[in-house]
Amino acid sequence: DGGITQSPKYLFRKEGQNVTLSCEQNLNHDAMYWYRQDPGQGLRLIYYSQIVNDFQKGDIAEGYSVSREKKESFPLTVTSAQKNPTAFYLCASSIRLALNTGELFFGEGSRLTVL
Amino acid sequence: GNSVTQMEGPVTLSEEAFLTINCTYTATGYPSLFWYVQYPGEGLQLLLKATKADDKGSNKGFEATYRKETTSFHLEKGSVQVSDSAVYFCALSITGGGNKLTFGTGTQLKVEL
């Protein structure tokens, strides 16, 4: 089945440690996105990528980093510089960023808790 | 800037009740409007969309009409079921802005027997 796979589903880390969240898609989509979901704040865009080896900052990129070395993969690293990293992280993809259909396909999310 | 405002939840209804979830927006350009649904433990799924004024999006018994004059895109369903219990997100994207969506805060719906 085609879709987006995020791992791990739950992750606990100590303060000051970097953490990498995995996102893989087999939909052959060009564009990929990372969103952060917090209670009462909806989804906020962290980073997005339109094509391999290219990515742009979203609204809340500080303290995060990404890479896009392969079309299928868009890992997110939550660095120690992120002041409040405990959140639910959602990865998404779409056919092409420029195609304004609004249809994003989401993974099931990764819940990060920093102790 | 662009923003989406949704009614706060949770909204609790009895099965077969009528549902309305309010959504209003502000946008710097000409937006397309969307409703996404998140079932427990899952990612978001596109429920319906409308790309121009007076368009009505519909899916699975849900519908929403793009009202430019009131900058609104309220979600409605005539008779909800327990299986509709989920979090509903209103979102917009700007024409020419690609698929970068601006989401509302989400409204949790609980449907009871």
Summarize the structure.
The complex is a heterodimer of chains A (115) and B (113). With 115 residues, chain A is mainly beta.
Report on the architecture of this protein.
The complex is a heterodimer of chains A (115) and B (113). Chain A has 115 residues and is mainly beta. In chain A, 0% of the residues lie in helices and 50% in strands. Chain A has strands spanning 4-7, 10-13, 19-25, 31-38, 42-51, 54-57, 64-66, 76-78, 87-94, 105-106, 110-114. The model of chain A has no long low-confidence stretch (mean pLDDT 91). Chain B is mostly beta strands. In chain B, 0% of the residues lie in helices and 51% in strands. Chain B has no helices and 12 strands. Chain B has strands at 3-6, 11-14, 19-21, 23-26, 31-38, 44-50, 56-59, 62-65, 75-77, 86-94, 102-103, 107-112. In chain B, a hairpin with a 7-residue loop joins strand 10 (86-94) and strand 11 (102-103). Chain B is globular, with a radius of gyration of 13 Å. At the A-B interface, strand 4, strand 5 and strand 9 of A face strand 6 and strand 10 of B.
What descriptive keywords fit this protein?
heterodimer; A: mainly beta; globular; B: 113 residues; 6-stranded mixed β-sheet
What is the structural class of chain B? mainly beta
Calculate the terminal CA-CA distance of chain B, rounded to whole Å: 41 Å
The number of distinct β-strands of chain B equals: 12
Strand percentage of chain B lies at over 45%
Overall pLDDT of chain A, averaged? 91
| Distance separating the two termini of chain A | 35 Å
Helix content of chain B: under 10%
Pair with the most extensive interface?
A: A-B, 29 and 24 residues
